[in-house]
Amino acid sequence: MPKRVLQGVVVSDKNDKTIVVQVERRYTHPLLKKTVRRTKKYHAHDEKNSFKVGDQVSIEETRPISKNKRWIAISQ
């Protein structure tokens, strides 16, 4: 099964070897026919602490690393 890859912006890098990535998805509202933006935050593993707040980053689905981390940060 292929691994999912999402793109987003780093919103926090305060944790050691962890970043928080905000991913935005857009879809058309079924009734109003208007484009709606929804965001979700994902915790991603950053082994070298190389990503900083504001960076564009890709995250890839992986095995559970901790309670909240199921993604790994990869360079875009």
TrEMBL record:
Q: Which domain of life is it from?
A: Bacteria
Annotated InterPro entries = NA-bd_OB-fold, Ribosomal_uS17, Ribosomal_uS17_bact/chlr, Ribosomal_uS17_CS
Q: Which UniProt keywords apply?
A: Ribonucleoprotein, Ribosomal protein, RNA-binding, rRNA-binding
Q: Which Gene3D superfamilies match?
A: Nucleic acid-binding proteins (2.40.50.140)
What transmembrane ranges does the database entry give?
A: none
Q: Which GO terms describe its cellular component?
A: cytosolic small ribosomal subunit
Q: Which molecular function terms from Gene Ontology are attached?
A: rRNA binding; structural constituent of ribosome
Please name the SUPFAM superfamilies in this protein's record.
Answer: Nucleic acid-binding proteins
One of the GO BP terms on file: translation
The UniProt subunit note reads as follows: Part of the 30S ribosomal subunit.
HAMAP family given in the database record: Ribosomal_uS17_B (MF_01345_B)
What is the stated purpose of this protein?
One of the primary rRNA binding proteins, it binds specifically to the 5'-end of 16S ribosomal RNA.
Q: Please state which protein family the record places this protein in.
A: Belongs to the universal ribosomal protein uS17 family.
Q: What is this protein called?
A: Small ribosomal subunit protein uS17
- Protein source organism: Hyphomicrobium denitrificans (strain ATCC 51888 / DSM 1869 / NCIMB 11706 / TK 0415)
